[in-house]
Amino acid sequence: MGGDNAPEMVIEGIEIARNLHPDARFILFGDENRIAPYLARFRRLGDVCEVRHTDHAIAADEKPSQALRRGKKSSMRLAIEAVFEGTAGGVVSAGNTGALMAMSKFVLRTQPSIDRPAMISFFPTRRGRCAVLDLGANVECSADNLVQFAVMGAAFARIELGIDRPTVGLLNVGVEELKGNDTVRTAGQALREVDFGFEFAGFIEGNDICEGTVDVVVTDGFTGNVVLKALEGGSSMFVSFMRQAFQSGLASKIGYLLVKPAFQQMRKKIDPRAYNGAVFVGLNGISVKSHGGTDGAGYANAIGVAVDLVRGRFSERIQADLEKSYVIPPESVEDTPRAAIS
Amino acid sequence: MGGDNAPEMVIEGIEIARNLHPDARFILFGDENRIAPYLARFRRLGDVCEVRHTDHAIAADEKPSQALRRGKKSSMRLAIEAVFEGTAGGVVSAGNTGALMAMSKFVLRTQPSIDRPAMISFFPTRRGRCAVLDLGANVECSADNLVQFAVMGAAFARIELGIDRPTVGLLNVGVEELKGNDTVRTAGQALREVDFGFEFAGFIEGNDICEGTVDVVVTDGFTGNVVLKALEGGSSMFVSFMRQAFQSGLASKIGYLLVKPAFQQMRKKIDPRAYNGAVFVGLNGISVKSHGGTDGAGYANAIGVAVDLVRGRFSERIQADLEKSYVIPPESVEDTPRAAIS
């Protein structure tokens, strides 16, 4: 029921995803009366979909705490509970981000070796794409949090990009070991010392994101959120300047007709729909946030991310990576009950 | 002597600036033998330039501490000392950024009402330009620092943009008052409560930078540095994708010839040379950093920024704004010896 154009956009997305992932099955939580007409549009969609009716949906402006308290019968909550119960492998929602994060965390719980779940998503780069986390789940992060983000990001890249040993960089204001604040320096040291099954590329700078220097960019949720939105704003400014240029005078307009196919090819590389599907990582289950303003093709991408992570046994792999590498020194067990970097 | 193509690029920049600012005079610190041939190229340049010879120049890879210790006779140091002595109104350098910051701070000293100097520069936006600070001088910032950055940024915008009451936004992960960490929330509260002579627009998000929502964007030096470089990287990715699109096939190539004039017009809007000249604000004097890889036109812009700030009596205006607005409550004088937000 979430998103600007739900449930139509969601069902169009499922129809696209059904063709890409023929063995996937879908449970749709929401208002049956509103879902049925759209479902009926696609002949074979009924075979892979099951509708579970509920009248209640979380509003776009509802606070996470309200959603937690009052949304126990909401479509979002029931969908997350299906993951908790094992009926579903993962949940995908285009609804209220804060509510999805709060309810996913409350129902699915943080996985044992992780202190703080984080939000991850792909960014376009010159060379393809890179995963960036945390995109805003944690405005303040410890060095331990950053190390765990690196492990989760690498597991994500391994499954989504199919790279066995992804490269991981820690976002900083310079590449030298002494640069930055205590938190990034301590995290950098831990990542240099322990082999977590990925290539630690050391500190990277802001420009490295779009240059595609690494497969995974690790940062705190404040910086990650600001950078994500800054790049979105920059990209949209650029596209609007381009549009103005193409419309300024007859020669430009004719020129545009000739350039158009190549230009559309290029826009595909930065099409937000191709990057749709931010994942709330570090939980006992898969929870994927679709952009609310996307279309069917974008929603299908978010579903694809969830399908890949369920198939790739994402949470279990994070757990295994951390258990392999983390050593809990006996004398510090009390200070850091869950995990400590040796 | 600083920059990839000095002193040639610098002298070309002075020649351009001389025409734009006919009453400006220039003192060139550096190797007379290397400067003279370039100076001789421009007939009337000798009238407004004076060369002060020194053999020593700070290397691009020199650490700030080394530069401070060993660079006492360097061209950079002597240029900054000319500002301290009042011989020059401001210094412009395309050399080592860390050394320029360290030496400027050491020689010119932080101005009385400011705790931490910061780096400010303009970014392109849909509506024109906005000034962003801190771009990396302080990786960790207190709420007081952010408030002072806002005052300095507003003074900068007043002079450079000619706006009497500029709008100032505080970069955060959301616009609601409760969003973000303690530091931005406390700074936000102070900026809402005290009238510092600008319009406080409250919290803004990453996308607001390029959307041109405000004239001045305030953030800590970690976030600011990462965002600056991320936008540079994003912009360069975009331009490279465009270039690929225009070169893919005959139709695109012909189309490009027709679009070219409009496209170049558009590229001017994001031309880094037009934004050249980052200012180290909060000192008793003007210190401007030019990009090392710029050309004469870019260097002339950096000179223009310095000329404007000297004419606008930048440091004095910051001092006046802060003295007008800051109240030091007697009981908290010991905790915060320099300034406290009432």
Rg of chain A to the nearest angstrom?
21 Å
Cα separation of the termini of chain A: 46 Å
Please write the CATH class name of the largest domain in chain A. Answer: Alpha Beta
Broad structural category of chain A: alpha/beta
Total helices of chain A: the number is: 13
Q: Mind telling me which CATH architecture of the largest domain in chain A this is?
A: 3-Layer(aba) Sandwich
Helix content of chain A: 40-55%
- The CATH superfamily name of the largest domain in chain A is Isopropylmalate Dehydrogenase
As an assembly, this protein is: homodimer
* Number of E-type strands of chain A: 10
Binned strand content of chain A: 5-15%
What is the CATH third-level topology name of the largest domain in chain A? Answer: Isopropylmalate Dehydrogenase
Count structural domains of chain A: 2
Let me know the average pLDDT of chain A: 91
Shape of chain A: globular
Element string of chain A (H = helix, E = strand): HEHHEHHEHEEHEHEHEHHEEHH
Low-confidence parts of chain A, pLDDT < 50 over ≥5 residues? Answer: 327-342
Short description:
Chain A has helices spanning 8-20, 32-40, 45-48, 64-70, 75-85, 97-108, 143-161, 182-193, 207-211, 221-246, 250-269, 296-311, 314-325, and strands at 26-30, 49-53, 90-93, 118-125, 128-133, 167-171, 199-204, 216-218, 278-281, 286-289.
